[in-house]
Design goal:
With about 250 residues, this protein is an all-alpha fold. The protein contains 13 helices and three strands; from the N terminus they run E-H-H-E-E-H-H-H-H-H-H-H-H-H-H-H. Helix 3 crosses helix 4 and helix 11 runs antiparallel to helix 13. It is globular and about 70 Å long.
Length: about 250
């Protein structure tokens, strides 16, 4: 039985305006139309909407979702398995963060002081101060390092949690493209690189395309960075470097 746009909006918990927008950008076009010209959604349309909402919840931009769903090689089962894995990882992290918040609340209510280890154990292997001495020695006189040091000196634990979460979302998007076999030069893949460049600019220092290219080179030239990035997926460091390079070259041509 076909559903109207208002029925689908209520069912999916989205606005009618959102569904109209999805239609306009060719992300989700309903299969049918009534005699009066109103949109009518079939089961396959609802299935596609479910995919859109899953990817959107995972932080994928609409342009990227459109490209994924239009890919002739798109496999629904593979997409669902990937989404389940990403959501499971997020759930595990959220559970750990809730535990950390509870511990902080308990410490506050009891008037006790949390140790450094207790405060930052939620980050796991992530340590904001890691390589700080080396970075100061190598780049201490650069404006980028000074700006990064100025900003990060004011960051709270909540800020670092957000920084880590945003960075992980971006890397998961790159992993998804790598697993799908997409070339680093594909527009949707380079858009992820642009998101990463904006992320560096937002949290650390103004990151030009040239600096971003150099960051990619660091990922493959420093074994420590390579090993850390490749934990998510073998070959991810090289792929990330190639995507950053492709994005920088695209920018130089525009």
């Amino acid at each position: 039985m076909s559903l109207t746009v208002s029925q689908v909006a209520r069912l999916a918990g989205v606005s009618v305006r959102t569904l109209h927008h999805y239609d306009e950008i060719d992300l989700l076009r309903p299969t049918g139309r009534s005699e009066a010209g109103y949109r009518l959604y079939e089961q396959t349309d609802l299935q596609r909407l479910q995919q859109v909402l899953f990817f959107k919840e995972l932080g994928f931009p609409l342009e990227e979702i459109t490209r994924i769903l239009k890919d002739p090689a798109f496999d629904l089962r593979a997409a669902l398995l990937m989404q389940r894995q990403l959501l499971t990882e997020r759930a595990t992290r959220v559970k750990a963060l809730i535990g950390a918040v509870d511990a902080a609340l308990e410490s506050l209510e009891k008037g006790t002081v949390m140790t450094k280890e207790e405060m930052f154990e939620v980050f796991g292997d992530f340590d904001p101060a890691k390589y700080e001495d080396e970075a100061r020695e190598r780049w201490g006189n650069t404006e980028a390092y000074k700006e990064s040091a100025r900003r990060t000196s004011r960051y709270t634990k909540k800020d670092w949690q957000q920084i880590k979460a945003e960075g992980e979302e971006i890397m998961r998007a790159l992993v998804a493209h790598l697993d799908a076999g997409r070339a680093p030069t594909e527009p949707a893949v380079m858009e992820v690189a642009e998101r990463h460049r904006a992320y560096i600019t937002k949290w650390f220092y103004p990151c030009s395309h040239e600096i971003h290219r150099g960051l990619g080179e660091l990922y493959v030239n420093d074994p420590r960075f390579t090993a850390n990035i490749d934990k998510d997926r073998p070959g991810l460091a090289q792929y990330t470097r190639d995507v950053f390079l492709a994005n920088a070259e695209r920018a130089s041509r525009s």
